[in-house]
Design brief:
The structure holds two protein chains of two kinds.
Chain A (H helix, E strand, L loop, with lengths): L1 E5 L3 H13 L3 E6 L11 H5 L14 H5 L2 E5 L2 E5 L4 E4 L4 E3 L2 E4 L3 E3 L12 E2 L4 H11 L4 E5 L3 H12 L3 E5 L12 H13 L3 E3 L4 E6 L5 E6 L4 E3 L2 E4 L3 E3 L15 E3 L10 E3 L4 E3 L13 H15 L12 E6 L2 E7 L11 E7 L6 E7 L5 E7 L5 H9 L4 H6 L1 H4 L10 H11 L10 H9 L2
Parallel strand pairs in A: 1-2, 1-7, 2-3, 7-19, 9-16, 10-11, 10-16, 11-12, 18-20
Antiparallel strand pairs in A: 4-5, 5-6, 8-17, 13-14, 14-15, 21-22, 22-25, 23-24, 24-25
Chain B lengths: L17 H22 L5 H18 L5 H22 L6 H24 L22 H19 L5 H15 L15 H22 L4 H27 L20 H8 L3 H25 L2 H4 L4 H8 L12 H31 L4 H26 L1 H4 L3 H5 L2 H12 L3 E5 L9 H4 L7 H5 L15 H5 L5 E5 L25
Antiparallel strand pairs in B: 1-2
Helix pairs in contact in B: 1-2, 2-3, 3-4, 3-6, 4-6, 4-7, 5-14, 7-8, 7-12, 8-12, 13-14, 13-17
Classes of the chains: A alpha/beta, B mainly alpha.
Chain lengths: 446, 510
């Protein structure tokens, strides 16, 4: 049986690896972007000079041949579902028995005037990075539009080269459509500390170019003209489903898939950013364009294809990011600024001395833990997952904080301070944190 | 595939304006005057001082505002190096103390300013910007090769042509006198000066200076602060002061933090005889090193892993962790390199064990002629002790990374590694499914461990070579890694499967 995978991002490659582990099917991975799999999330580090391109390849180049995964650098123009083939830009047709579409995302563009000028782009692909690099020569100032995770990455990248950055963000605080207000405010301050000209509640009106069709300035709703040599458009991404055009594969925003990640055409699957779940599990979205989801989907689809039909059960949501120096982790459900439900409450603690915080979201009556949000502090995944899965009461979670704590040895553990503040605010019984020895079983149990 | 990233320059602004040209001219004049101060016989003070003035002024004019600190500090470093070279060439033209103070003073001042401004921003955090662009730190960079040749050359002179660096040896003698109350010169026969104080002094200086840099760079991380304070302490007290004080008191120089097989001499018959013929201190030393080798090593490694020695105590490790930090990413991460590493390091361990055993047997049963046993001893000392651990081990920092010796050659590391792999509570924990395969951990692993190989499959890292420096965890942008000691059993189990988190298990094999 021949498995054809379109896209060599983390979703497609994870599927390929797990299919190989479980079978001896022929596997071909087609990608126009690069021959070898690389970590998309690490592109920024190549630009910043932390790593070379070859350092962000998760596997050495011999890995693919050794595991009999064929890599083909080409562009799929059309899927011929009747014939069970794909047409490549090289003119060839490639047959398949099972097709996995893992084409990822494309950057959003909202029809701004001037959005196709030279020096205006998003940051998603390797080609985007190369363009960004070439525009960076002699660049004095860049404007970044959009307050998401890619925008802040771009800002950090430019800053590492001494290029001035201005960020236009529509929201009241940076990323407060995802983060609760306090956290969004902390990140907003942190961005400004890095000497970035962050303009909140500001929207792009148009991008102005010169006679050579190169960007020279932007205009915002606040009637200002900001001169710049580059505009980063990072108002999010959408599923990249161009490959399905002219085929009977059913799409909404993404390629619609059932719980086995199979599309309406039998034998054709979609995973990762480009997939849209018809019936997302409780607490999860239909499209989740993150690394972890892509990886889980890749593992799941590999099982189904290898004759062990497995529904996609992603479990408790988690995600992470880093905003300059502040790491961020989220587990479970944490409502964005102003969107907390009636029956939800949260404990929030922020360090007065450094940039770190902890938020525990819980159900009001039962005090059951619903979500954990941390900034500047690392939390142990499998323990957090267990607390959420088993619905531990929030007070018990706090008492067992030392099992969650994942910061380096000798770091300053904040739990005493957290509880001091909490106990002074609450009239009820004071919570006491158990020592590490008393919670060790949660950490190391097998 | 992209080839673009082969040709990136560090700064995108590279056009030279009027100001820059003026600055460069001034700098050149200054350096010329500075050099003149060494050659002129009519009192060096004027050209010397004007040289400094012109160079610094030139540098300030040349540099753009935000780069001013870096250039002026680099200039100071450069002036220090020039005086240093002068010491090599013309030992007697100026007062050695004066010139050595100038040389080391400039160097230290410049380096400190550079380090401060390079890492000052923010409250700490990972600052590895431009490492793969800089000609000094990129793979096979031009300056990296220059530095490698310079360091290797210095080791060659130190070991085989010490008379060529008399100027330097003389220059540090006043420091020796000031610290230990008498001259360290001349000690060896034939009027040759003893170069080893110079070596120890420079080594300690490097650990101190670059250790401070390291602590400043990682000031947000208490594990790194404590660990670095520890290696600095052991270098300054155990490797520098105690042996030198003992030498000044006409005692045998003893290094209390080295033991067999890294310090192989202590179990060679000649070593045992020397120790046993000494006073109570050397007697104590003998039992002390034995206890370290055969008691402390297994016990401490069981509880804390190899790191208790390799990245907290050892002097070779100390230099690698401090002076070697800018080059840590140059270690080879390929599977190939790992295979070579395993063959080489255990070969050295077998060699030293066999030689030690044979020599000890020889002592009791007289197996070989005296010249044969001497040949054993000498050839190991030459090939492993001198060339591998010294010349290659340090000289190749800028080419192969900072832990070449520790990774490929050190028999001590080999023993600690076996213990760590099979009898220890230490592991690097992987935080569930949080890895994004970015590669920072592997890139900055000085031991060349492909950390992400394990992390991305949600598996803890238990590797013989890991020295527990903790940098993988520090550079991880997603909080995935943590060094910790826990139950020895099940250390490599997959993190996520153990509590039945409902994502699919990863098989353990390939």
């Amino acid at each position: 049986m021949h498995i054809l995978i379109i896209g060599n991002g983390v979703a497609g490659i994870t599927a390929a690896r797990y299919i190989r582990k479980r079978s001896s099917h022929a596997i071909t991975v087609v990608s126009a972007e690069s021959k070898h799999f690389f970590s998309r999330t690490a592109l920024m580090y190549v630009y910043m000079g932390h790593m070379r391109f070859e350092d962000i390849k998760p596997y050495e180049d011999w890995f693919w041949e050794k595991n009999r995964i064929d890599l083909l650098q080409a562009y799929v123009e059309k899927i011929n579902t009747e014939k069970r083939t794909v047409s490549l830009n090289t003119g060839n047709e490639l047959p398949y028995d099972r097709l996995i579409i893992a084409t990822g995302s494309a950057s959003n563009k909202f029809g701004w005037p001037g959005q196709d000028l030279r020096g205006v782009q998003g940051l998603y692909s390797l080609q985007d990075l190369e363009n960004m690099e070439s525009y960076s020569r002699d660049l004095k100032k860049a404007v970044i539009v959009g307050g998401g995770l890619i925008g802040i990455e771009m800002a950090e990248m430019f800053l590492s080269r001494g290029i001035e950055v201005c960020m236009l963000v529509r929201e009241k605080y940076y990323w407060d459509n995802v983060l609760p207000e306090e956290e969004a405010r902390m990140i907003t301050n942190h961005i400004r500390k890095h000497s970035i000209d962050l303009r909140l509640e500001t929207e792009l009106k148009q991008i102005l170019g010169n006679e050579e069709e190169r960007v020279v300035a932007v205009e915002t709703n606040k009637e200002k003209t900001i001169e710049c040599g580059f505009v980063g458009l990072t108002p999010g991404v959408h599923p990249n489903i161009k490959v399905t055009e002219g085929s009977p594969i059913e799409c909404r925003r993404g390629i619609l898939v059932n719980e086995y990640l199979e599309s309406n055409v039998p034998g054709i699957y979609a995973i990762g950013d480009c997939a849209e779940l018809r019936n997302p599990p409780a607490g999860r979205k239909a499209i989740e364009a993150v690394w972890y989801t892509a990886k889980l989907m890749g593992k799941t689809v590999a099982r189904s294809i290898c004759k062990e039909a497995t529904p996609y059960r992603p479990g408790i949501w988690y995600n992470s990011a880093k905003f300059f120096d502040i790491e961020y982790q989220v587990y479970g459900s944490v409502p964005a600024s102003g969107r907390a439900a009636e029956n939800e409450a949260s404990y929030y603690w922020e360090d007065s001395k450094r940039e770190r915080s902890l938020r525990l979201v819980f159900e009001k009556g039962s005090r059951k833990l619903l979500g954990i949000n941390v900034l500047g502090m690392r939390i142990r995944h499998h323990v957090a997952d267990r607390f959420l899965r088993e619905g531990w009461p929030v007070d018990k979670v706090l008492a067992h904080f030392n099992a969650l704590y994942f910061e380096p040895e000798f770091s300053r553990n904040p739990i005493r301070e957290i509880l001091k503040k909490l106990n002074s605010e609450n009239a009820g019984k004071a919570i006491k944190a158990l020592g590490f020895k008393e919670v060790k079983h949660l950490v190391f149990e097998n | 595939m992209s080839t673009l990233y082969e040709n990136i320059s560090l700064t995108p602004h590279n056009r030279m304006g009027k100001k820059e040209r003026t600055g460069l001219t001034l700098m050149a004049l200054g350096l010329l005057a500075f050099l003149l101060s060494f050659i002129t016989f009519a009192g060096p003070a004027m050209p010397f001082l004007s040289g400094i003035f012109f160079s610094v002024a030139g540098g300030l004019v040349y540099s753009r505002k935000e780069k001013r600190w870096s250039l002026s500090s680099l200039l100071l470093i450069f002036l220090g190096l020039i005086s240093f070279l002068f010491l090599l060439a013309r030992p007697s033209a100026l007062s050695p103390l004066l010139i050595s103070l100038f040389s080391f003073g400039f160097f230290l001042a410049g380096a400190s300013i550079y380090i401060f401004f390079r890492f000052r921003k923010g409250e700490g955090g990972i600052r590895n910007n431009g490492i793969t662009f800089s000609p000094l730190t990129r793979k096979n960079g031009a300056l990296a090769w220059v530095l490698a040749v310079v360091i290797t050359g210095f080791y060659v002179m130190l070991y085989w042509f010490p008379e060529e660096i008399h100027g330097l040896i003389l220059a540090v003698d006043p420091i020796y006198k000031a610290l230990f109350g008498k001259s360290g010169l001349p000690q060896s026969n034939g009027g040759h000066y003893n170069p080893w104080f110079l070596y120890g002094f420079l080594y300690t200086l490097a650990v101190l200076l670059m250790g401070s840099r390291f602590m400043f760079k990682y000031r947000h991380n208490r594990y790194q602060l404590l660990r670095t304070a520890s290696v600095i302490f052991f270098q300054v007290v155990f490797a520098f002061f105690i042996p030198n004080v003992l030498a000044a008191l006409n005692q045998q120089e003893l290094y209390f933090h080295y033991f067999w097989p890294l310090d192989y001499d202590v179990l060679f018959p000649s070593g045992i005889d020397t120790l046993m013929s000494g006073g109570s201190l050397t007697h104590f030393f003998f039992w002390w090193t034995l206890a370290l080798s055969f008691l402390a090593v297994p016990v401490l490694t069981y509880y804390f892993g190899k790191r208790w020695y390799c990245s907290w105590v050892c002097g070779c490790g100390g230099l690698a962790e401090t002076a070697g930090d800018p080059f840590r990413h140059l270690s080879d991460k390929s599977l190939n390199a790992w295979q070579i590493e395993r063959k080489l390091i255990y070969l050295v361990l077998v060699l030293i064990t066999a030689i030690t055993a044979l020599l000890l047997l020889d002592r009791s049963f007289d197996l070989f002629s005296e010249s044969t046993s001497l040949a054993f001893k000498k050839s190991y000392g030459f090939v492993i002790g001198t060339i591998f651990s010294g010349v290659v081990g340090v000289g190749f920092y800028p080419i192969m990374g900072s832990r070449v010796w520790c990774r490929f050659g050190c028999p001590q590391a080999a023993i600690l590694g076996i213990l760590q792999k099979y009898f220890s509570r230490f592991r690097i924990s992987t935080n569930g499914g949080q890895c994004i395969s970015c590669g920072n951990c592997s890139t900055f692993c000085e031991m060349g461990i492909d950390v992400k190989w394990y992390a991305q499959r949600e598996q803890n890292i238990v590797r013989a070579s890991c020295v527990g420096c903790g940098i993988c965890a520090a550079v991880c942008p997603r909080g995935v890694l943590k060094l910790e000691n826990g139950p020895a059993k099940g250390r490599t189990a997959l993190q996520i499967s153990r509590t039945e988190v409902k994502i699919l298990d990863e098989d353990l094999i390939g």
